[in-house]
Amino acid sequence: MPTRTLTPGTETVERALVIDPGQRVPGRASGFPLRREGPAKLTGAAKYTDDLVFPGAWYGITIRSTEARAKLLAIEPDPDVDWSKVVLATAADIPGDNVVSLIKDDQPLLVPVGGEIRHHAEPVALLAAPDRETLRQLKGRIKLVTEALPPVFDPEESDHVFAQYEVSQGDVAAGFAAADLVLEGEYRVGHQEQLYIENQAMIAVPGEDGGIVIHGSMQCPYYIHKALKRALRLSSVQARVIQEETGGGFGGKEEYPSMLALHASLLALKARRPVRMIYERHEDIAATTKRHPAIVRHRTGVTKDGRLVAQDIEVVMDGGAYCTLTPVVLSRGVLHAGGPYRCPNVRLRGRATRTNTPPNGAFRGFGAPQTEFAAETQLNRIAERLAISPADIRRRNVYRLNDTTPTGQVLRESVAAEEVLEQALGASLYERVRERTARDAAQRRGSGTIPAGTLRTGDDRTATGIGLALAWHGAGFTGSGEVHLASVASVELTADGRLRVLTANTEMGQGTKTVFPQMVAAELGVRVDLVEYAAQDTAEVLDSGPTVASRTVMVVGGLTILAARKLKAEVEARNPGVPFQEAYRDDAQAHGATRIDQQFEPYPGVVFDDETYLGDAYPAYGWAAAVATVEVDLDTAEVQVRDVIAVDDVGKVIHPILCEGQVEGGTLQAVGYATIEEIKLQEGRYLNDRLATYLIPTALDAPHIRSILVEAPYSGAPHGAKGVGELPMDVAAPAVVAAIHDATGVWIHELPATPEKILAALRAPDGGGARRKGAAAA
Amino acid sequence: MPAEPPIDSPRRLFEAYELLAAGSTRPIAGGTDVMVAITGELGPIPERMLDLSRLEELRGISLEQGALLLGARATYTEIRRSTVCREHLPALVEAAATIGAAQIQNRGTIGGNLANASPAGDTLPVLLAADAVILVGGQRGEREIPVADFFLDYRKTALAPDELILQVQVPLPRGRSLRFRKVGTRRAQAISKVVMALAWQDLGSAGWKDVRVALGSVAATPIRARATEAVLEGAGPTPEVADRAAETLAGELQPIDDVRSTAEYRRAVSARILHRLLRDAGGW
Fold it and tell me: Could you tell me the sign of the dihedral formed by the alpha carbons of A364, A694, A330, A122, in that order?
């Protein structure tokens, strides 16, 4: 959507859709701005990348390996084809380094002849033509000559380690010696696909200066900018990246867009014309990154009254064929692996290894949903063994002010774990419902209704269960990440008297375009519709870092507030006695433009040592609790998640409706993760790489979600916000699994908790005896 | 990347027969299966297509002489909205309601579901359980194929290349009950893991007769479970009979592991949903 240049009193369509703060209007949007890009999206006027027209543009496609691991000996285009009418690009055409620049330089943008193919969907060559029919015909006429190599699919058997971490506090052996109960557990989670509505899409337009302009769907324009400079040997000016309307990301458009932008650019430079690379859904699912599968092993020591005295946790993540962001995903996973609980003796170990499957990468939660599912299920199992309510065991262990985390971080402020827990318990009537489900289960047990090892049905068709989970999520980048990024965000009073916010942070449906102007307008004391949001174009905005890690509002939003404050102070200093909102237009006329570039400064008192992994892993944490109610069909083990109470402490709520939207979306994505979303693999290839077979919840599968927002502000951020995007994703899955246990008596240790797994657990020989102990005692 | 094979749109049935007889052409009605294949990614693109959308003879749902007649082009939406279907074959309405999304139901047809012959076709067990007869036609004339003889092998049917499905005829014997149950991965837009239809006529003290147990997604084609039917024939829906029927069904089925489910789950759940249907019928 174009930036707006409204003067007060002008009536336009856009104007009519903006509601002034404080103005009462019917409906829930009262007092808060409506989404800036909302009208364009609702009316179909919004232009996504595939909607953009570039005269003379060709279409590009990717020729991929079909083997999980092989040496590439030759690329042989069919000699009977006239290749002069099209453009074929291989690694030999890359002007700069053949790497997709990210953490490590291990991933080529195209496998070179003589190089190693490391997964079945790996790009080997690119083809561009004026029309798609030509591409369809020629796609199969390029032969890859390869020599098969033995692939590795099991991350625990791989000897190539991308990253490993060990964090410890206290004396774990002594902790176990002092424990009344030691419980072990192994938990597994599989791949998850982000499934943004808009597929990956990039258009590369060659410039007269030998450079490239990228138009595309993305989260991080400057990641692509950096990748272009490196692989294509372009200057900062020659590489220009423009984000177009983006239909969802969820982490899936953090790293992969760099690969696709490079592919489109390579073809565009060779064809000397714009090239469009728009993935179809099948290719998008088959080739782009997924959430990392993980194996998490817990050994936990507790006292009789349920106090944690020792945690020994091992995390193994499957990185896939290339490093991508794996070390940081693993790091966050390991740092959150113990859950939001005080424990004096802790050892957390993690490693991520290479397998011959497509690379895994960023996905909402970024390692934490994997390890927190394990931590919460482990704690719920402990509660069952000790015959303590899941609520009480949390009350006894949950982090409070001044507790110390496994990295030695003292939680000095903004700790709302108890608050979110109690809110969730109260709103869900947790204990009362649990008493009822326990009573029902006891009756069913008497009537033999839960069918262990039989083909019979029982009296009851369904069983209801309730489940609780708690989570924490480190706000912003891990460790010294933000310090290294040194982001810059700007607020500008232009010479013609307009107000603009300039950042590289993207709108992908979550509300950046709405809340940034809202925060700046509030700071400046002007109407929100007078603040423009500049395009995410590297030629126009500075690098304010990627739109990831729930950092946008917290970190970059904080920078825009600081910049607005400085702008206000400067203008008011030049116009003594006149408030900013009355002074700025005249000030612009008299003094020209004023632009404040606000660089990130480390949060006060936050120190982390990247070498020892000790210190303040995050400046603050968000806290979340979820209570899920499920209904399990006792004949088929189908699970319907009926209700989720989601309580999230985000520090400061900027825009309640958008914030609730994040909680609802994250919760539903977690419900899908918990129940049905699953990638099945065969020889390193995804078997269900289409929408017919990779299923996510429909509207009918969505539970009723009640979101309760809690504010425990973080003092280091000017507004107190701690981020919201990922937090709800961490907590709902273990709550659903706990509810399934409450309904059926079986623990599912591996996500998703499919009916196949539940029925198998119910029918297991020991299923009948062991599975009801907790409920019987409760 | 859709290719565009040449397409004929006859207005009269004999013209369609001529085109079919003239050579390889792929009939298209709602296109919900054909259009997926047309990208060429999932197999060869049809050389030529035969658009059935102008053949009015293939439309309509009616009740004639104690049978429900469904034109091959009757869509799932039409079936859902049809008063005669709702009154006389509610199980088919239930099945139609579980297929795809509203858009698919608006386009997809019962003739297409038969011709596509997917083992997971959700209306097919209902047609099997209801002893439906499929009227097909071509230049060589018309013939009737009992639906039990229609599915030959995985996606292979008794329909000859020069024939068209014209109509589905469902007899409506007095006193017949027919139940439907589908188990899918999610509550809408899911291809079934197991789909079942159970039909019987209750003779009171003489037990059940003409029992049909039909299933989808448990074999290469939609099937009837004949051994299980034999257990139920002449018996009543008592707990003992239900147990025996469930065990027989579990023994009779040879499902497979695939991307949607496991053999083990399909076998157990088929038995259990049959058990539940019998339990409901018996009222115990």
Answer: negative
Q: Are residues A333 and A467 in the same domain?
A: yes
Please name which of A234, A303, A167 lies closest in space to residue A612, comparing C-alpha atoms. A167
What is the count of structural domains for chain A? 4
A635, A680, A687: residue with CB nearest B272: A635
Q: Are residues A229 and A80 in the same domain?
A: no
Q: Tens digits of per-residue pLDDT, A497-538?
A: 999 999 999 999 999 999 999 999 999 999 999 999 999 999
Q: How far is A303 from chain B (nearest CA, A)?
A: 40
Query: Are A554 and A723 a contacting pair, CB within 8 Å?
Result: yes
Strand order in the sheet with B208-216: B176-184, B192-202, B208-216, B223-224
Helix then strand count (H, E) for chain A reads 21, 27
Residues in a beta bridge with A612: none
pLDDT (tens digit, 9 = 90+) per residue, A704-754? 999 999 999 999 999 999 999 999 999 999 999 999 999 999 999 999 999
Give B148→chain A minimum CA distance, Å: 27
CATH number of the domain bearing residue A224: 3.30.365.10
Say if residues A256 and A519 touch (Cβ distance below 8 Å): no
DSSP B39: T
Task: Tell whether A466 and A493 lie within a shared domain.
Answer: no
**Which residue in A278, A457, A679 has the most chain B C-beta atoms within 10 A of its own C-beta, making it the best mutation to test that interface?**
A457
Structural domains in chain B, sorted by start? 176-282 (3.30.390.50)
Q: Is residue A379 one of the residues assigned to a domain? A: yes
Helix (H, G, I), strand (E, B) or coil at B278: helix
Same domain? For A471 and A498 the reply is no
> In the predicted model, what is the mean pLDDT of residues B266-284?
97
Whether residues A88 and A207 share a domain: the answer is no
Residue type at A219 in one-letter notation: Q
Q: Look at residues A599, A625, A649 and tell me which one is the last residue of a structural domain.
A: A599
**ipTM associated with this complex:** 0.95
Alpha-carbon distance values, A692 to A16, A254, A315, A525, A611 (Å):
41, 25, 32, 51, 46
Task: Report d(CA A57, CA A268) in Å as an integer.
Answer: 9
Helices then strands, counting H and E runs in chain B, come out as 11, 14
- Out of A287, A310, A343, a domain closes at A287
Is the pLDDT score of B112 beyond 90?
yes
Residue A47 lies in a domain: no
Same domain, A347 and A468: yes
**Nearest CA to A642 among A749, A771, A743?**
A743
Question: Which domain, by its residues, includes A264?
Answer: 194-287
Helix (H) or strand (E) holding B282: helix B263-282
In a domain, A236, yes or no: yes
What is the 8-class DSSP label of residue B57?
G
| Count of other CB atoms within 10 angstroms of residue A561 | 23
Instruction: Work out the minimum CA distance from A635 to partner chain B, whole angstroms.
Output: 6
Residues of chain A with a CB closer than 8 angstroms to some CB in chain B? 132-133, 135-136, 282, 451, 455-457, 461, 635-638, 640, 676, 680, 687-688, 692-693, 695, 697-701, 755-756, 759-760, 763
- The enclosing H or E element of A215 equals strand A212-216
SS3 per-residue string spanning B67-109: EEEEECCCEHHHHHHCHHHHHHCHHHHHHHHCCCCHHHHHHCE
Where are the strands (E) in chain B, listed by range?
7-8, 26-28, 49-51, 61-64, 67-71, 133-138, 141-146, 151-153, 156-157, 164-171, 176-184, 192-202, 208-216, 223-224
Angle at A649 between CA A645 and CA A653, to 5 degrees: 105
Evaluate whether residue A557 is within a structural domain: yes
Same domain, A226 and A301: no
State whether A440 and A415 are in the same domain. yes
